[in-house]
Amino acid sequence: MATNDPNTAHGLAPDVKLAQCFLAVDDHDKALAFYRDVLGMEIRGDVGFEGMRWVTVGSPLQPDVEIVLEPPAADPDISAADRETIATLLAKGVLRGVNFTTTDCDALYARVEASGADVLQAPMDQPYGVRDCAFRDPAGNMLRFMQRRN
User: Of all helices (H) and strands (E), which one includes residue 34?
Assistant: First the structure.
């Protein structure tokens, strides 16, 4: 049966949406100061369990999408060697990050730069239709902020 819905045309459920993504952080208080105070995200949860902590933040503009700031190697079954490797990779800033959109890349850049965040890229126009900039959060995760150009 033919359909005009691109989701069901490919056999996907039409109600699948992103709810959460996870970023490893080594200091939740520093991460909170950055995500809440610099980026303006709201705290949606702060849970401790077995000596670990998970903090959930999100943009007030996206109430159904959350970023969970979790301890590196939060899996209780991970080996001590793997836990150390993950902590080392986090400290080097080579774990993955998150891409955001913004309506004013330059203003956001000025705000984040003024916070002392590690700048990876000043705002620049990209050939694929966005103006973007990039930073590392206090744990070393890469964050990219993109503004669509008209």
Answer: none
pTM comes to: 0.84
For the segment 102-119, the average pLDDT, to the nearest whole number, is: 97
Nearest residue to 32 via CA among 2, 13, 57, 7: 57
Rounded to whole angstroms, how far apart are CA atoms 125 and 111? 19
Cα 127 to Cα 39, 75, 120, distances in angstroms? 26, 40, 18
Per-residue pLDDT of 117-147, as tens digits, reads 999 999 999 999 999 999 999 999 999 999 9
Q: How far apart are CA 111 and CA 119, in angstroms?
A: 12
Distance CA 135, CA 93 (A): 11
Q: Which of 106, 104, 82, 105 is nearest to 24 (CA)?
A: 82
Cα gap 64→70, rounded to integer Å: 19
